[in-house]
Specification:
Number of strands: 2
Strand order of the largest sheet: 1-2
Order of helices and strands: HHHEEHHHHHH
Largest sheet: 2 strands, antiparallel
Strand content: under 5%
Number of domains: 2
Number of helices: 9
CATH topology of the largest domain: Four Helix Bundle (Hemerythrin (Met), subunit A)
CATH superfamily of the largest domain: GntR ligand-binding domain-like
Structural class: mainly alpha
């Protein structure tokens, strides 16, 4: 059995990373057929549905070629492969931003109505933690950023919204870490985070929603404007 390197925690993002590394490191040669979902699941000690989801993501990135009735193959190298992967990465990041906007706009609106002064102090600490990670490790920065946004969601006082954000967080983390790593000229949206914090402190629902939208729309506009640079 090949050592999988999987750890405790959300399985699908770990599988995505493992399979992505195998393809890029030449573990499977271009055009080579991968083992079946059943064999991969047994080798890695995970469920077939988790393998299927990870394969689906890598197929969207252009790293795998799923041929119904034939199997899954490592994608063949092509001159445009890097550009295609960049396009697909941005498409996935845009989807993640859309999910975040749908959840966080309502979360910010409710948090502005319900947050107490002592809650704001905790949020200030979370924002400081985010700012301290800027320019450092991509995964650590994304974790700190999502910690801040999760704290806002918790201040909404809506358990359903909090649960939805928590469920989406593993996928958001994977997508955003990849985006921070590859999109080296990403805009600094710290001002929108500070604006959101101050709006919550004032109990200003309109400003809280506007800061949330500005934060994510700024990222989305950046991604749309850079369609094919690797």
């Amino acid at each position: 059995m090949v050592e999988s390197g999987l750890t405790r925690g959300p399985v699908v993002p770990q599988l995505e990373r493992l399979l992505r590394e195998r393809v890029r490191d030449g573990f499977w040669k271009p055009g080579e057929r991968l083992p079946s979902e059943e064999r991969l699941a047994a080798e890695l000690g995970v469920g077939r549905s988790s393998v299927r989801e990870a394969v689906r993501v890598l197929a969207r990135e252009g790293l795998l070629d799923v041929r119904h009735g034939s199997g899954t193959f490592a994608a063949r190298a092509a001159g445009e492969a890097a550009d295609v992967r960049a396009l697909l990465r941005r498409a996935r990041a845009l989807e993640a931003c859309e999910v975040r906007r749908a959840l966080e706009v309502e979360g910010a609106r409710l948090a502005a109505r319900r947050a107490r002064p002592e809650d704001i102090e905790g949020l200030r600490a979370a924002l400081r933690g985010r700012q301290e990670q800027i320019g450092g490790d991509a995964a650590a920065f994304v974790d700190a950023d999502l910690d801040f946004h999760q704290a806002v969601m918790e201040l909404s006082g809506n358990p359903a919204l909090v649960a939805l954000f928590a469920s989406a967080r593993p996928v958001l983390r994977e997508v955003m870490a990849e985006m921070v790593t590859h999109e080296t000229a990403m805009p600094d949206v710290s001002c929108h985070h500070a604006g959101l914090l101050e709006a919550l402190a004032r109990g200003d629902t309109g400003a809280a929603v506007a800061a949330t939208v500005d934060n994510l729309e700024g990222l989305m506009e950046f991604l749309r404007a850079r369609p094919a640079e690797g």
